[in-house]
Amino acid sequence: MNARKITAGKRLFVLDTNVLLHDPSAVFRFKEHDIFVPMMVLEELDSAKKGVSEVARNARQVSRFIDELIADSDRRAIESGLPLPGPKNGMVGQPPSGRLFLQTSVLDGAMPTGLPGNTPDNSILGTTLALREQHAGMDVTLVSKDINLRIKARVVGVSAEDYYNDKVLDDVSLLYTGTRELPADFWAQFGDDLKCWQEESRTFYSAPATRFEHFYPNEFVYTTGDGALDLIARRIEDGRVIFERARDYRHNRNAVWGMTARNREQSFALNLLMDPDVDFVTLLGAAGTGKTLLALAAGLAQSLDMKRYREIVVTRETVPLGEDIGFLPGTEEEKMTPWMGALMDNLEVLSETQEGGDWGRAATADLLASRVKIRSMNFMRGRTFFSRYIVIDEAQNLTAKQMRTLITRAGAGSKIVCCGNISQIDTPYLSETTSGLTYIVDRFKGWAHGGHVTLMRGERSRLADFAVQNL
């Protein structure tokens, strides 16, 4: 690879292994710019390809992509750079943009004496230094999701960046919350423009769409103070916004499996969870806001009382908080039991809400255990769930690709509920702006059969609520 091969004005990005393992299609995500893959990265991809994990699958997919690009190319063509398709989907029929360069010779860079040892990271860093020396005046940037490697790169004077293509938002504070507060006198401003009617014991309102800012389907709008009103924005019809009055699940007459909402956001969440026309619900919130409890209560009410669903399927990513305790014996459900402590705690609370004394509660607990199925994500690929109520807990630890795999398992008559707290991400290389949960909240906010609520107030205990706010 030499300087005359690279078009002036382009940037050259050197990719670290973790970028390709995180997103196998990263080689197509740099638009008109060129990318360089060091030999050490190819070696690490080869080491990572064995097994059935997500990382191993990604490593094999990267190798397939590069193999398709390099097919029938001789050494001279490889040294000149392999044309990359455009950034759109697919590899066929797209105009070439940047070029992919593979390391074909030894690149000796003057490594700083402060970098001890011959580690893979230092080898990649040395390759980047050599490329910068060969192409003086050109912007050579190392792209890595390894924070420490980026720190070392900047220490030795190499430009380094994180991989931003999977970033959903620039700032997590911009994430859709699913709720919107209106001024207290908002409805008084409409006068005769506001219409109200009832259909099948449901109350609807309509107002001119020109008087509203943009809103999303199933977004909740509310007013506070005297005459407070909670509404769900349903659709636009004949230039008017149609609202439905939300059911107040804070009242005992609307209890769900013996549970009532303790605040406005919990009531909004139950409106979505109990709506048969809403197939996909996402619940965000800090620890103790009631995400899993509300999801399970709604699932039990609809599967046991209303018979809408055959059973409840619960799964979650198995990311340990501390040291891993190793392999677990037993069946799939027995292996998942230690990870489902939160589920068991909530089922215990829900069984206590039923009457009948100790015998009645024990019978209820057995019934709930038989109707709630625990499944591992490792065996979800290729499955289809019909008429199931599916709860994906701790969804903040999933990537966008994993979320896509799980959500596409839903068959006819199924409902999926994703719960999580994006401030408690335990998976390496994921952040609040790149989490799969953030991704699906943003992608599903405009769908008429989806809904989202961010739960604000902790209701676990005053101790837990104080800890969340002050620790």
Description:
The chain has 471 residues and is of the alpha/beta class. The protein folds into three domains: 3-161, Rossmann fold (3-Layer(aba) Sandwich); 172-245, no CATH class; 260-470, Rossmann fold (3-Layer(aba) Sandwich). The chain contains 14 helices and 18 strands. The strands form three sheets. The protein has a six-stranded mixed beta sheet. Strands 7-10-11-12-9-8 form a six-stranded mixed beta sheet, with no helix packed on it. Strand 1 (12-15), helix 1 (17-22) and strand 2 form a beta-alpha-beta unit. Helix 2 (39-48) packs across helix 3 (54-70), helix 7 (264-273) packs parallel to helix 8 (291-305) and helix 8 packs across helix 10. The radius of gyration is 27 Å and the shape is elongated. Residues 1-6, 87-93 and 320-325 have low confidence and may be disordered.
Summarize the structure.
This protein has 471 residues and is of the alpha/beta class. The protein contains 14 helices and 18 strands.
How are the elements arranged and paired?
Elements: E1 12-15, H1 17-22, E2 34-37, H2 39-48, H3 54-70, H4 75-80, E3 82-83, E4 99-102, H5 120-134, E5 140-143, H6 147-155, E6 159-161, E7 179-181, E8 195-199, E9 202-208, E10 219-222, E11 230-237, E12 240-245, H7 264-273, E13 280-285, H8 291-305, E14 311-316, H9 332-336, H10 341-352, H11 357-371, E15 372-374, E16 388-393, H12 400-407, E17 415-420, H13 436-444, E18 450-455, H14 462-470
Parallel strand pairs: 1-2, 1-5, 2-4, 5-6, 7-10, 13-17, 13-18, 14-15, 14-16, 16-17
Antiparallel strand pairs: 3-4, 8-9, 9-12, 10-11, 11-12
